């Protein structure tokens, strides 16, 4: 398996502007409830988020299959240790986000902050957006790679916003968008959304193969 740059430099996969925007948001509106990151790579952004809470830290949860590069989980833990953060304060859940969601629903978990940065095709992002049913009122959901290279992220985010008027886009910096939830209403992502997102995957893949043939990507 090829080593990702983040596995070596241990840095966030966010641009400096994206990271600053996320950190300022968290520093200006600190939350006490659970913080979730779906897809952590080397834990660079996780580390920076945790450092935003120097005094009392909210609970942090990370979901990732930890197969992005060899020894990923150990590298993430060492990254945190390097910033004097004890990794035992992070609840690492090894696996994909959708089976983990079933477990979280069963445990009646609630989150104040969700950062979605796992697999970037339309159906995976839509699956990850299902976690918003566990997001508190006034909670924040961040999505990364909302940019033309990942049309699935953009499509899923826009469909979600269209169908959930209790969310508003409060930040868009480079490829980071942050949505704020007004009130809790129930289930944001329907089975139909998931079905349509799978069709969209095929369509976007087909479009990409055509563009590739004409050297447009
Ligand atoms: C783009 S990287 C994350 C970068 C990281 N958030 C950062 O800011 O540095 C993608 C990560 O998502 C994980 N991943 C891929 N599919 C996933 C899924 N379905 N559920 C959870 N994590 C996933 C990969 O293992 C990888 O660690």
Textual characterization of the structure:
It is a single chain. This protein is α/β, with parallel strands linked by helices. The chain has one domain: 3-Layer(aba) Sandwich (Rossmann fold). It has a seven-stranded mixed sheet with strand order 3-2-1-4-5-7-6. β2, α4 and β3 form a beta-alpha-beta unit. α6 packs parallel to α7, α6 runs antiparallel to α8 and α7 runs antiparallel to α8. 39% of the residues are buried. The mean pLDDT is 95. The structure holds S-adenosylmethionine (SAM). S-adenosylmethionine binds next to α3 and β2.
Task: Please provide a brief summary of the model.
This protein has 217 residues and is an alpha/beta fold.
The first-level CATH class name: Alpha Beta
Tally of distinct domains: 1
- The overall strand count is 7
Question: Helix- and strand-based class?
Answer: alpha/beta
Please mark out the parts with pLDDT under 50 across 5 or more consecutive residues, or reply none.
none
Q: What is the end-to-end distance?
A: 24 Å
Order of helices and strands: HHEHEHEHEHEHEEH
List each distinct ligand once: S-adenosylmethionine
Percent of residues in β-strands: 15-25%
Q: Please give the CATH architecture.
A: 3-Layer(aba) Sandwich
Sequence of strands across the biggest β-sheet: 3-2-1-4-5-7-6
Shape: globular
Can you summarize the main beta sheet? 7 strands, mixed
Which percent bin holds the helix content?
A: 40-55%
Tell me which oligomeric state these chains represent: single chain
**Rg calculated over all Cα atoms:** 17 Å
> What is the arithmetic mean of pLDDT?
95
CATH topology label:
Rossmann fold
Tally of alpha and pi helices:
8
CATH homologous superfamily title: Vaccinia Virus protein VP39
